[in-house]
Amino acid sequence: MSAELRAAHADRDRVVDVLTAAAGDGRLTVEELDERVGAALAARTLGELAGLTTDLPGAAEPVPVKDVVRIEQQGGSVLRGHGWVVPRRLEIDSSWGDVTLDFTEAVITHDTLGIDLDMQGGTLRLVTRPGVVVDTDSLAVGYAKIRSRPTGESGAPVVLRVEIHGRMSYGRVVTGPPRRRFLRKGTAV
Domain of 29? Predict the structure, then answer.
């Protein structure tokens, strides 16, 4: 990615997140944090942003964000998990397979994700975290079920609104936080 490309709000926000985490780890003083955050918010190019985090571990070049991603499958399963970049729109065309979208550690770059769903059989599973809200009001279902489990933090600010449109037949849509796993008797992970 060219350093001369213009920076987007999402690029600036990612750099501010890296700087804040570095300050929380003790890598930056309060004064350095204030100075670098001010520079990040005023940056015009990706090169200017990259210069603010080059001396910090885990500071990567801004992740390219796609506007539209398409998932097409017949049978089997698809998983978007740890670190996947959430696009603005997702088109899912699936027959007799499962699609899992895990938002717990996803890179969220927009405030809304529109899912255009055409699914027959199988399960669409959305693993959420506090601040991720799922709207299935525009989804047409035929011989299908929609099951939503609350995230547990009702007062969390909305980070991402997932709006599902289209149709689901002979399957189910399941939304909610990850299930707790038990390793030993009485010990939750």
Answer: 1-62
